[in-house]
Specification:
By secondary structure, the chain is an alpha+beta fold. It has 4 domains: 9-206, Heat Shock Protein 90 (2-Layer Sandwich); 220-336, Ribosomal Protein S5, domain 2; 355-460 and 556-605, formyl-coa transferase, domain 3; 468-543, 2-Layer Sandwich (Ribosomal Protein S8, Chain: A, domain 1). It contains 19 helices and 26 strands. The chain has an 8-stranded mixed β-sheet. Strands 9, 10, 11, 13, 14 and 16 form a 6-stranded mixed β-sheet that branches. The chain has a 5-stranded antiparallel β-sheet with strand order 19-20-21-22-26. α9 (263-273) packs parallel to α10 and α13 crosses α18. It is globular and about 85 Å long.
Length: 610
C-alpha cells in the first residue's frame, strides 16, 4: 500500500478552515461580507465570551431557498462566479465558496434563511461538518447564522485564542471596518447582551466616520476631492498635516469596497505626505480606491486581506498625486485663513499699536534681509555641506529711487490693499504671535525658517543638479541579482542623482562617484537602502529624495533658533517667505510651523462658554 492517501472530507474541511478561520473575528468578517453581498441594509452581530461561545449574525438580505441553503454548505459552492474568466472581474467581497463549510466544520453551526417572497424558510443544523437536521422554519426574511463552541473539535487551535476582551476587540475592529466601507448599511454590535455600538445607515462617508470615531477626529480630517487619475478614482478622508499615529492602525484602505492591506498604497501615502509626515509616524486615512476589477487580483490570500495590482506604479502615482492635491488645497485654506481681514475696533488709549502687515511683496532693504542669512559664506565652506540658495532682496522701485537720491533706504509700509493680518509680537524669542479673523496664530520661528531654507535648497539642487564627488579609489559592492537588475534598469535615474555606477562582474557594482551628501561608511548597506527608497518613489517624485534627509538636517543646524531675537522686518520677511512655501504648515521633519487657536477655544479656556 502506498504512503499517499486521500484525506476524508471532514479533515479536508478542517484544513481549509485553518486557512480561512483564524479566530472569531474571521468568522464575523466572512459572515458580514456574505450579508453585504446579499444586499442587506441592516446587519446585527452578537457575540458571547469573545465569540468562542456564541457568534450570531443576522441580516435582511436576499435570503436563500432550501436547495441553495444546502448547497451553500458544500465546498467551492458560490453564487458569485461561474467560470475562471469571472476571477478577473470580481466585484463582490466573497467568491471562493469556502467560508460557510469551513466555519461549519469547526463549530456547532445553525443556518436559518428565508426569501422575502417565500412563506416559509429553511433551518439547517451542522455539528463539526456533519449535517444534523434540515427543517422548515418561520424566520424573518433574510439570513441568520449562529456559530456555537468555535473550535470545539480542534482543541489545539482553541488554545491559541487570546482573552475574551482581546477577541472581542478584534471582532469590533472588523465590524467597524465594514461599517466604514459600507456607510449605506446599518450595523449593530452586541457583546454579552450589551450594545456596544449602533450605526444607522448614513448618507455620506463623513457621517459614518463621525458616528464611529467622533467629531474630534473628524475635524482633523481633510476630504479628498474625488477625481479619476489613470483610470483610478481615489476618494475618502485623510488626516491634516500633524495628524498621525505611531502605528498603521488608523490606515484604513479599501479597494473596490474591500478592506485590504497593501504596501503599494502605503508607499503612495508616504510619498503624497512627503516631508509633511514625521519619521516613524503614519497618517490617519480612510482611503477608497475604485478601479477596473481586471486591474486588481483579489485571489491572493485565503482570507482576501491582500490584493495585487497589475500596474502598481500607476496605483502608487494616483494615490500620491491625490494626497498632494488634497494637502495643497489645505495649504491654500491655511494661507487664506491667515489673510482674512480682521476688524478690530479702534482703542484711542493704546500707546503701542500692533503693526499691520501686508503679506504681499515687502519693501525691506537688502541690509536688513535677515540675520536669517547667518553667515552663508561660512556655512557654504563647511566640509560635507552643499551651499544653500541665498535669500535675494526683493526689488523695489521705491528703494532704488531712495538710494539714487542718496536718502536712507527705509521701508515705507503703505500697503495698497486692505490689511489682512496683524503681527502682535514675539513670545519667548521663539513664537511669533499673529491675529486673524479666526483667532490667534502662533508660528515657530525655527521650524518656519527650516521649511524656507529646505525648499530653497532643494529647489536649487533640482535645478542645478546634484554635485558628484569622484572617489580616489572606486568601491565595489555586491548586491543580490534582483537588486542588480533593478539598478541596471534605473542607471540613468541614479546618474541624475549623482551616482556613477557600472557593472563589475556577476552581481557586483563598481562605484566611481557618489553624491556629496551620501554616506560611505558601509556602501553595501547604503546601496540596498537606496534601492528600497527608490522603489517606493513615484514617477513624479524628485529623484533627489534620497538627499532630502541630509538637507533637512543641514538646514536644522543653520536655521534661526530659540532666543535669536528678530527685528520686525525680519519677522515680516520670515512670514512672507513661509506663506509662499509649498508646505508652509510643517518643517522638513513633519513638525508644525504654525498653530491656529480659535476664539472658540480661547473662550472655553476662560470659561466664557461650555
Amino acid at each position: 500500500m502506498g504512503r499517499i492517501v486521500l484525506l476524508p472530507d471532514e479533515v479536508a474541511n478542517q484544513v481549509a478552515a485553518g486557512e480561512v478561520i483564524e479566530r472569531p473575528a474571521s468568522v464575523v468578517k466572512e459572515l458580514v461580507e456574505n450579508s453585504i453581498d446579499a444586499g442587506a441594509s441592516r446587519i446585527e452581530a452578537a457575540v458571547v465570551r469573545g465569540g468562542t461561545a456564541v457568534i450570531r449574525v443576522v441580516d435582511d438580505g436576499f435570503g436563500m431557498d432550501r436547495d441553495d441553503a444546502l448547497l451553500s454548505l458544500e465546498r467551492h459552492a458560490t453564487s458569485k462566479i461561474r467560470s475562471g474568466h469571472d476571477l478577473a472581474r470580481i466585484r463582490t467581497l466573497g467568491f471562493r465558496g469556502e467560508a460557510l463549510p469551513s466555519i461549519a466544520s469547526v463549530s456547532r453551526f445553525r443556518l436559518s434563511t428565508r426569501l422575502h417572497e417565500a412563506l416559509e424558510g429553511t433551518e439547517i443544523v451542522v455539528n463539526g461538518g456533519k449535517i444534523g437536521s434540515v427543517r422548515v422554519a418561520g424566520e424573518a426574511p433574510g439570513t441568520q447564522i449562529e456559530v456555537r463552541s468555535l473550535f470545539y473539535n480542534l482543541p489545539a487551535r482553541r488554545k491559541f485564542l487570546r482573552s475574551e476582551n482581546t477577541e472581542s476587540s478584534h471582532i469590533q475592529h472588523q465590524l467597524t471596518l465594514q461599517a466604514i466601507g459600507h456607510p449605506n448599511v446599518g450595523f449593530v454590535f452586541i457583546r454579552d447582551q450589551t450594545l456596544l455600538f449602533q450605526a444607522p445607515p448614513a448618507k455620506t462617508l463623513g457621517d459614518r466616520i463621525r458616528d464611529l470615531r467622533g467629531s474630534e477626529l473628524f475635524e482633523q480630517l481633510l476630504e479628498i476631492q474625488t477625481e479619476a487619475l489613470n483610470g483610478i478614482t481615489v476618494s475618502g478622508f485623510i488626516g491634516k498635516v500633524g495628524v498621525s499615529r505611531s502605528t498603521k492602525a488608523e490606515q484604513i484602505l479599501f479597494v473596490n469596497g474591500r478592506s485590504v492591506e497593501n504596501i503599494t498604497i502605503q508607499h503612495g501615502l508616504r510619498e503624497g505626505y512627503h516631508t509633511a509626515l514625521m519619521k516613524g509616524q503614519y497618517p490617519v486615512t480612510f482611503l477608497f480606491l475604485e478601479m477596473d476589477p481586471e486591474a486588481v487580483d483579489v485571489n491572493v490570500h485565503p482570507a482576501n486581506r491582500e490584493v495585487r495590482f497589475r500596474e502598481p506604479d500607476r496605483v502608487r502615482n494616483s494615490v500620491a498625486e491625490t494626497i498632494r492635491k488634497t494637502l495643497e488645497t489645505d495649504r491654500r485654506r491655511w494661507t487664506h485663513s491667515l489673510q482674512k481681514p480682521i476688524h478690530t475696533p479702534e482703542t484711542p488709549n493704546m500707546s503701542v499699536r500692533p503693526q499691520v502687515i501686508d503679506p504681499g511683496p515687502l519693501l525691506i532693504p537688502a541690509i536688513e534681509q535677515f540675520a536669517l542669512r547667518r553667515d552663508w559664506a561660512d556655512f557654504s565652506s563647511s566640509p560635507g555641506h552643499v551651499a544653500p540658495l541665498p535669500f535675494e532682496a526683493p526689488s523695489s522701485p521705491k528703494l532704488e529711487q531712495a538710494a539714487a537720491a542718496g536718502g536712507p533706504a527705509t521701508p515705507n509700509y503703505c500697503p495698497e490693499r486692505p490689511s489682512e493680518f496683524k503681527i502682535l509680537g514675539v513670545l519667548g524669542k521663539l513664537y511669533i504671535l499673529m491675529e486673524n479673523e479666526e483667532g490667534l496664530v502662533l508660528v515657530d520661528q525655527h521650524a518656519a525658517h527650516e521649511r524656507i531654507l529646505f525648499e530653497n535648497l532643494r529647489r536649487q539642487m533640482e535645478s542645478e543638479g546634484v554635485p558628484t564627488q569622484r572617489l580616489l579609489i572606486p568601491l565595489t559592492v555586491g548586491v543580490t541579482p534582483k537588486d542588480y537588475d533593478w539598478i541596471a534598469t534605473n542607471a540613468q535615474t541614479l546618474q541624475k542623482m549623482g551616482f556613477v555606477l557600472e557593472p563589475f562582474g556577476n552581481s557586483t557594482l563598481k562605484i566611481d562617484g557618489i553624491p556629496q551628501y551620501f554616506r560611505t561608511d558601509d556602501p553595501s548597506v547604503t546601496i540596498r537602502q537606496l534601492v528600497d527608497e527608490l522603489r517606493s518613489m513615484t514617477i513624479t517624485t524628485s529623484r533627489l529624495r534620497m538627499g532630502e534627509d541630509v538637507i533637512a538636517r543641514t538646514v536644522c543646524r543653520h536655521a534661526i533658533r530659540a532666543q535669536d531675537e528678530l527685528h520686525p522686518p525680519e519677522v515680516e520677511k520670515l512670514l512672507h517667505d513661509l506663506m509662499h512655501c509649498e508646505l508652509p504648515y510643517c518643517c522638513p521633519h513633519g513638525r508644525p510651523t504654525m498653530i491656529q487657536i480659535s476664539y472658540g477655544e480661547l473662550e472655553k479656556k476662560f470659561g466664557r462658554r461650555a
